[in-house]
From TrEMBL:
<dbReference type="InterPro" id="IPR000133">
    <property type="entry name" value="ER_ret_rcpt"/>
</dbReference>
<dbReference type="GO" id="GO:0030663">
    <property type="term" value="C:COPI-coated vesicle membrane"/>
</dbReference>
<keyword id="KW-0675">Receptor</keyword>
<protein>
    <recommendedName>
        <fullName>ER lumen protein-retaining receptor</fullName>
    </recommendedName>
</protein>
<keyword id="KW-0256">Endoplasmic reticulum</keyword>
<keyword id="KW-0472">Membrane</keyword>
<dbReference type="Pfam" id="PF00810">
    <property type="entry name" value="ER_lumen_recept"/>
</dbReference>
<keyword id="KW-1133">Transmembrane helix</keyword>
<keyword id="KW-0732">Signal</keyword>
<feature type="transmembrane region" description="Helical">
    <location>
        <begin position="118"/>
        <end position="138"/>
    </location>
</feature>
<dbReference type="GO" id="GO:0006621">
    <property type="term" value="P:protein retention in ER lumen"/>
</dbReference>
<dbReference type="GO" id="GO:0016192">
    <property type="term" value="P:vesicle-mediated transport"/>
</dbReference>
<feature type="transmembrane region" description="Helical">
    <location>
        <begin position="65"/>
        <end position="82"/>
    </location>
</feature>
<keyword id="KW-0931">ER-Golgi transport</keyword>
<dbReference type="GO" id="GO:0015031">
    <property type="term" value="P:protein transport"/>
</dbReference>
<dbReference type="GO" id="GO:0046923">
    <property type="term" value="F:ER retention sequence binding"/>
</dbReference>
<feature type="transmembrane region" description="Helical">
    <location>
        <begin position="150"/>
        <end position="168"/>
    </location>
</feature>
């Protein structure tokens, strides 16, 4: 495991911690898309089913468990604990526009036609578009809190570091995962769109 992968994981974890701290400290989930958080919880759930079948390392297992717990705690905070502060009117992106194509694509383009592999592929494709409800919400309201922008910045940094990780692995191990790389690049483009929105708004 190289430094880009570790920094990418830490950036991803920091983004989630920033979001959770924002919710807990302000006792509010205003400005946060619950739909994006549901999609991220679905991403982690379908990707980390191999927790029950494959052991890679203690680091890998701990990070998977932490991401799963954080994802579900975030969804709980938004839809249960602080639901009165949730802006459902502006969090109006229709998830079927993402889920239907992603499900179809995961059946058509995967490395092997097995349940775990299809679910892993689904998680990769879904992660690339999971931020869209949040970006849609920002574009609709025309504003984003500083904490929310920090959260999005570190998510974008995580994707950029993972691209560096893939380049490093290609040069040092001749390893290339086409599905992960293409989806990661698409996701990074969406984060660039967020920074454009932030500057112009």
């Amino acid at each position: 495991m190289n430094v880009f992968r570790i920094l990418g994981d830490l950036s991803h974890l920091l983004a989630i911690i920033i979001l959770l701290l924002k919710i807990v400290r302000s006792q509010s989930c205003a400005g946060i898309s619950g739909k994006s958080q549901i999609l991220f919880a679905l991403v982690f759930t379908t990707r980390y089913l191999d927790l029950f079948t494959t052991f890679i390392s203690v680091y890998n297992t701990v990070m998977k468990v932490v991401f799963l717990i954080c994802a579900y705690v975030t969804v709980y905070m938004i839809y249960v604990k602080f639901q009165k502060t949730f802006d459902s009117e502006n969090d109006s992106f229709r998830l079927e526009f993402l889920l239907v194509p992603v499900i179809g694509l995961s059946f058509l383009e995967n490395y092997s036609f097995t349940p775990l592999e299809i679910l892993w592929t689904f998680s990769i494709y879904l992660e690339s578009v999971a931020i869209l409800p949040q970006l849609f919400m920002i574009s609709k309201t025309g504003e984003a809190e500083t904490i929310t922008t920090h959260y999005l910045f570190f998510l974008g940094l995580y994707r950029a570091l993972y691209i560096a990780n893939w380049i490093w692995r290609y040069h040092t191990e001749s390893f290339y995962d086409q599905i992960a790389v293409v989806s990661g690049v698409v996701q990074t483009i969406f984060y660039c769109d967020f920074f454009y929105l932030y500057v112009t708004k």
